[in-house]
Hints:
Layout: H1 3-13, H2 19-31, H3 36-58, H4 71-77
Amino acid sequence: MDPLGEIKTIYFKATPETIRRDLARAVELLKGMASEEERERAAVFMDGLSQMRSEWVAAGKVRLDRGAAPPAQRRRRHGR
């Protein structure tokens, strides 16, 4: 599959559980694109993936730092 086609597929199949891996793969595909025209066509899907990740992080469906508690929670656990 061509890079743009793969990015489109990633976009339409992304879930909160896969978004981090999906976005990383899409970035790698974008870097390998030969022309600026191809990258411009992919930009809408890249923006969409980024938006999904942001919305899912805000909704608590995705954690930014896997395995680590947010700073506010760490402070409360240690009594600070």
